[in-house]
């Protein structure tokens, strides 16, 4: 947060000095984005050996300066003129090796070959999204001594590699918002933009809004802007501190869509500006009689996907469902022992309950209203994962879906039919089940994604719906190298997960949905192994270990006993 506030302060200072004069006709200026305009960069220090030249080239590749100028100075003259690196980046571990290649003699004392070896953490795709990858990294560089005696690279790679630390320093993560008609909310799509120059941050973010959702989210959300929509002028700060966004190509968009477009832009820009935003479309207000916007003026699009503060959560204990608020059993057979409950999930609105029941040597699903008899669904197996709910906004109310995994390899979806019965519906989960045994599944509360535990690893996938099908797409393993033995997961926010592992050294972690980093919770007071975790927006994180239930709000906070802690409990918030 401190880095963000500093960044915003510098941005506002710089942007305020770069206004287009009022008497001129504004236009989009070429070269406004990084990598397009030539800049003067000092030559490297004299006398660098080939290994150092290559290492410096990699370190400076992380600087998204114009035309890759910071890295280009390590190339010979011909390569400087002709080098055209591919869009995107490969992010490698901070520790990497450079060694002379002795197996490929050049026969020329003024030529050397350097091998780079490291570990690949992920790729920054051309659409500016981080895609986690677990792989070895290797690259070969050929260098030649120049007439001035300096070593320079003569065959630079098309694909740039940067270290994780340099990537974090030079790129800024921004959640770009895209609308989900199913849940009536906006879904964050984590993307990365060059952090400098600060004055251009809003413009670079707006470019990503116009590009549409990343490949990993396409189909799971609606792109409100068609291919004809673009910015008529540069996104710029005016003398009165307003950020101007002038669009063209909106055409005959309805008032409803115009309000949604305004919300999408304001939500996407709120992380890079504190200014009010002026939204224009073809020279007039995007939304009639509402020309200037602040995020505080937007409706609460998350109202239907965030559990009500009065819903304190539930837990399963010894085959019964109890309240986390007072420890008492819930009404009906789920709480009084009428069912032998293995696990359970509460709908986001709190009105319904799904339980996995042990019966006749098998596990069965029951679904119904909380506190009442729950209907038995024609779904059973040797094991069913804890039920998870997906809300669907319909006319101001919520009608849910329940998902579970049967026998670790079949993703099942249960919907409410017109006659009031809960029935099985199809879902194409081939890409997810192909990764291995699924032990846990959690739908995001906005319904656009799911998180799963597959073979002890944390996986995220998008949920793509059409008129007659539901499919899981773009499954990605998060922190595959370091995060192992995962036993449970939940959505803390729309773009962050809390995961529990059986490891004593890494019991609870927080991971963004793209897996670009991982933060570890304080393990004080916990008694490994942790076997359960639940989280929700504006809620304390809650974990279950051998000693009972523990709560903590922040990463560095010491875990404290939950008010109604009990051993062998599995807690869950609505969702």
Automatic annotation (TrEMBL):
Signal peptide: 1-20
PROSITE patterns: PROKAR_LIPOPROTEIN
Domain GerMN: 178-286
Keywords associated with the record: Signal
Residue stretches making up the Lipoprotein LpqB N-terminal domain: 43-167
Domain Lipoprotein LpqB C-terminal: 326-574
Keyword Signal belongs to the record: yes
Protein name per UniProt: Uncharacterized protein
């Amino acid at each position: 947060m401190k880095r963000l506030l500093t960044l915003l302060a510098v941005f506002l200072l710089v942007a305020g000095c770069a206004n287009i004069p009022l008497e001129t006709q504004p236009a989009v200026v070429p070269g406004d984005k990084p990598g397009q305009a030539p800049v003067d960069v000092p030559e490297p220090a004299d006398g660098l050996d080939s290994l150092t030249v290559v290492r410096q080239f990699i370190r400076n590749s992380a600087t998204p300066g114009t035309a890759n100028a910071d890295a280009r100075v390590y190339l010979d003259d011909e390569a400087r003129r002709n080098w055209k690196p591919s869009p995107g980046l490969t992010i490698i571990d901070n520790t990497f090796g450079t060694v002379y290649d002795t197996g490929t003699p050049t026969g020329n004392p003024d030529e050397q070959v350097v091998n780079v070896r490291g570990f690949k953490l992920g790729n920054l795709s051309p659409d500016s999204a981080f895609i986690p990858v677990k792989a070895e990294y290797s690259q070969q560089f050929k260098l030649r001594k120049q007439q001035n005696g300096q070593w320079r690279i003569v065959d630079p790679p098309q694909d740039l590699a940067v270290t994780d630390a340099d990537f974090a320093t030079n790129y800024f993560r921004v959640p770009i918002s895209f609308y989900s008609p199913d849940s009536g909310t906006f879904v964050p799509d984590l993307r990365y933009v060059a952090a400098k120059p600060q004055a251009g941050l809003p413009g670079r973010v707006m470019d990503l809004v116009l590009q549409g959702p990343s490949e990993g989210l396409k189909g799971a959300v609606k792109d409100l802007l068609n291919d004809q929509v673009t910015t008529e002028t540069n996104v710029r700060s005016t003398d009165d501190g307003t950020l101007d966004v002038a669009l063209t190509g909106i055409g005959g968009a309805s008032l409803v869509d115009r309000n949604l477009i305004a919300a999408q832009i304001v939500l996407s820009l709120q992380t890079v500006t504190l200014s009010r935003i002026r939204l224009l479309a073809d020279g007039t207000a995007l939304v009639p009689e509402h020309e200037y916007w602040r995020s505080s003026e937007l409706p609460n699009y998350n109202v239907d996907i965030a559990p009500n503060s009065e819903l304190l959560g539930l837990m399963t204990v010894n085959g019964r469902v109890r309240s986390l608020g007072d420890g008492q059993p819930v009404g009906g057979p789920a709480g009084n022992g009428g069912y032998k409950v293995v696990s359970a999930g509460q709908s986001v609105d709190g009105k319904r309950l799904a339980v996995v029941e042990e019966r006749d040597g098998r596990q069965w699903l029951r679904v119904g209203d909380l506190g009442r008899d729950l209907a038995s669904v024609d779904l059973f197996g040797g094991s069913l994962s804890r039920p998870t709910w997906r809300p669907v906004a319909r006319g101001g109310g919520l009608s849910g879906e329940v998902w579970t995994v049967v026998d670790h390899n079949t993703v099942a979806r249960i919907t409410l039919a017109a006659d009031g019965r809960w029935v099985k519906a199809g879902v194409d989960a081939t890409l997810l089940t192909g990764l291995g045994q699924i032990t846990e599944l959690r739908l995001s509360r906005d319904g656009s994604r799911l998180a799963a535990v597959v073979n002890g690893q944390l996986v995220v996938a998008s949920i793509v719906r059409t008129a007659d099908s539901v499919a899981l797409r773009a499954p990605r393993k998060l922190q595959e190298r370091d995060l192992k033995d995962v036993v449970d997961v939940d959505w803390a926010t729309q773009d962050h997960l809390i995961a529990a592992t059986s490891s004593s050294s890494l019991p609870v972690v927080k991971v963004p949905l793209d897996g670009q980093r991982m933060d570890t919770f304080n393990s004080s007071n916990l008694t490994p192994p942790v076997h359960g975790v639940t989280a929700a927006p504006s809620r304390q994180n809650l974990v279950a270990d051998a000693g009972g239930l523990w709560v903590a709000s922040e990463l560095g906070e010491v875990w404290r006993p939950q008010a109604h802690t009990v051993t062998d409990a599995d807690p869950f918030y609505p969702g």
